[in-house]
């Protein structure tokens, strides 16, 4: 078992990573101070069907359970409200703990419930997707609004993250690919050596198992942890993690939540950001080769949506300032920076990008 220490200004907490991490859950709960009164597990239907019993058996105390339907569209006000109702009915108090058991959808929803229930109670992340190597670390929790993704949220760090990798074995390929996009992101924004390693070691998605999976997770989490340690509340470099997300979130909103996986949307957003970077910096960054690398894993081409409409959605992004789109651009592999980009240039390169994607 590996332990990564996540250090933020507001809290330091451990992330356990490995093949038998679930066995630690009850001792992690038992070690919390003040002692835990009640436990509420929040998970989605799919995860409940697969692993809920196993988790309940691993606990020493009876836990309350709140199950939400699966899918991004469920990261909603309605489910936030329903989970708060469950917490109240179960009699959770300020010494209680919520276990966010699932992928990023449940992690964000349950984390936001924990952040706001009685002005904030403790929670533990028990991630079950590859994508959650990103979402379970760093304390951003949120629900979606029909007008924009993650628009209602908070910063609330968990007490611990328990990454039990056997949970990942039942992930459908589509979800593995979705999570892998954030892994590619972590390499591209921060660690050129990790990028080379991924190209070499992960030829196809099913290479993500055993030692390769553990190493890939550890390195990607390491990037996330390093960024968050420097900038917990996104006043500076944490924005780097939004590489590919400005267009990615716009695509998710435009297509309707749950139609396109988060990773497929972000992967398209990264390809666009790379093409835009080539234009802005006036040099080749190997766009074609990088694009081929993405498509080798089966990422779908960017949906052919109207460029002007996408621009409007990009402007609604939380990172847009004063009406200009702020993009994370990549001057070289392994390094990014933020920059405001004019509407004209966004639309021009977006059209060029969609043409390229249409040829795939
Ligand atoms: N908070 C953050 O910092 C942050 C960072 C990145 C992404 N996110 C958020 O994360 C979400 C995406 O996360 P996700 O991709 O994990 O989505 P998800 O939680 O919706 O999971 C994807 C699908 O996989 C299923 N599933 C989960 N675990 C499984 C398993 N072990 N076996 C089989 N099926 C399983 C789920 O039921 C769901 O249908 C988005 O809402 C995104 O905004 C948040
Ligand atoms: Zn993301």
TrEMBL record:
Cofactor(s) in the UniProt record: Co(2+); Zn(2+); NAD(+)
Binding site for Zn(2+): 182, 245, 262
GO MF annotations, alphabetized: 3-dehydroquinate synthase activity; metal ion binding; nucleotide binding
Matches recorded under Gene3D superfamilies: 3.40.50.1970, Dehydroquinate synthase-like - alpha domain
EC number(s) recorded for this UniProt protein: 4.2.3.4
GO BP annotation list: amino acid biosynthetic process; aromatic amino acid family biosynthetic process; chorismate biosynthetic process
Pathway stated in the Swiss-Prot or TrEMBL entry: Metabolic intermediate biosynthesis; chorismate biosynthesis; chorismate from D-erythrose 4-phosphate and phosphoenolpyruvate: step 2/7
Positions of transmembrane segments: none
InterPro entries tied to this protein: Dehydroquinate_synthase, DHQ_synth_AroB, DHQ_synth_fam, DHQS/DOIS_N, DHQS_C
Segments forming domain 3-dehydroquinate synthase C-terminal: 179-320
Free-text remark on how the cofactor is bound: Binds 1 divalent metal cation per subunit. Can use either Co(2+) or Zn(2+).
GO (cellular component) term, any one: cytoplasm
Record domain 3-dehydroquinate synthase N-terminal: where: 67-177
Keyword hit for Amino-acid biosynthesis: yes
Entry annotated with the keyword Cytoplasm: yes
Family: Belongs to the sugar phosphate cyclases superfamily. Dehydroquinate synthase family.
Function: Catalyzes the conversion of 3-deoxy-D-arabino-heptulosonate 7-phosphate (DAHP) to dehydroquinate (DHQ).
Protein name: 3-dehydroquinate synthase
């Amino acid at each position: 078992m590996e332990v990564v220490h996540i250090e933020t200004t507001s809290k330091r907490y451990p992330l356990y990573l490995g093949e038998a991490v679930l066995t630690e859950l009850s001792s992690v709960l038992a070690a919390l101070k003040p002692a835990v009164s009640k436990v509420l597990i929040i998970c989605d239907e799919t995860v409940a069907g697969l692993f809920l019993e196993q988790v309940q058996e691993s606990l020493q105390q009876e836990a309350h359970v709140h199950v939400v339907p699966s899918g991004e569209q469920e990261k909603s006000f309605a489910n936030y409200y329903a989970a708060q109702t469950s917490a109240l009915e179960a009699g959770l108090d300020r010494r209680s703990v919520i276990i966010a058991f699932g992928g990023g959808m449940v992690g964000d929803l349950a984390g936001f419930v924990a952040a706001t229930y009685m002005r904030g109670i403790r929670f533990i992340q028990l991630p079950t997707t590859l994508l959650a190597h990103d979402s379970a670390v760093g304390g951003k929790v949120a629900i979606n609004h029909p007008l924009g993704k993650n628009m209602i949220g908070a910063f609330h760090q968990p007490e611990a993250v328990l990454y039990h990798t056997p949970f990942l074995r039942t992930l459908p390929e589509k979800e593995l690919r979705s999570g892998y996009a954030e892994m590619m992101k972590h390499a591209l924004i921060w660690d050129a050596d990790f990028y080379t390693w991924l190209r070499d070691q992960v030829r196809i998605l099913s290479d993500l198992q055993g030692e390769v999976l553990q190493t890939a997770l550890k390195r990607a989490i390491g990037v996330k942890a390093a960024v968050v340690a420097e900038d917990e509340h996104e006043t500076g470099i944490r924005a780097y993690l939004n590489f590919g997300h400005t267009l990615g979130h716009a695509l998710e909103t435009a297509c309707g939540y749950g139609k396109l996986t988060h990773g497929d949307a972000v992967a398209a957003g990264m390809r666009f950001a790379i093409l835009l970077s080539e234009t802005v910096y006036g040099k080749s960054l190997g766009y074609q080769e990088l694009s081929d690398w993405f498509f080798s894993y089966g990422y779908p081409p960017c949906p052919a949506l109207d460029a002007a409409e996408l621009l409007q959605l990009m402007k609604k992004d939380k990172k847009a300032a004063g009406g200009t789109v702020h993009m994370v651009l990549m001057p070289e592999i392994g390094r990014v920076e933020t920059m405001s980009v004019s509407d004209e240039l966004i639309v021009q390169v977006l059209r060029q990008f969609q043409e390229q994607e249409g040829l795939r």
